[in-house]
Design a protein that fits this description.
Mean pLDDT: 85
Largest sheet: none
Shape: elongated
Distance between the termini: 19 Å
Order of helices and strands: HHH
Number of strands: 0
Structural class: mainly alpha
Number of domains: 1
Strand content: under 5%
C-alpha cells in the first residue's frame, strides 16, 4: 500500500502535470463563437457533431478534468 507521506509528496506534481494538460486540451478545442458571441451578438447557434480529433479532445478534457478534481479532493483529505 502507498504511504500517505509518499502520496503527499507526489500529489502536487501530479496536479501540476494534470493542470498543464488540461490547459492545453482546452486551448486546442475549436471555438465557433467569435468575439461577437462574447458580447451577445451572433445569436445563431448551430449544433454540429464532434468527429475525429475534436471528439478525442472533448473526451480527453472531461477525463483530465475529473482526474484533476479527484487529485484536488485527495489533497484536501491528506492535509
Amino acid at each position: 500500500m502507498v504511504s500517505i507521506h509518499y502520496m503527499a509528496s507526489i500529489l502536487p506534481w501530479v496536479q501540476i502535470v494534470l493542470s498543464i494538460i488540461l490547459i492545453i486540451v482546452v486551448l486546442l478545442q475549436q471555438s465557433d463563437a467569435g468575439l461577437g458571441g462574447a458580447f451577445g451578438g451572433g445569436s445563431e447557434t448551430t449544433y454540429h457533431t464532434k468527429r475525429g480529433f475534436e471528439k478525442v479532445l472533448f473526451y480527453t478534457t472531461i477525463v483530465v478534468g475529473i482526474l484533476f478534481a479527484v487529485s484536488a479532493f485527495l489533497a484536501v483529505l491528506i492535509k
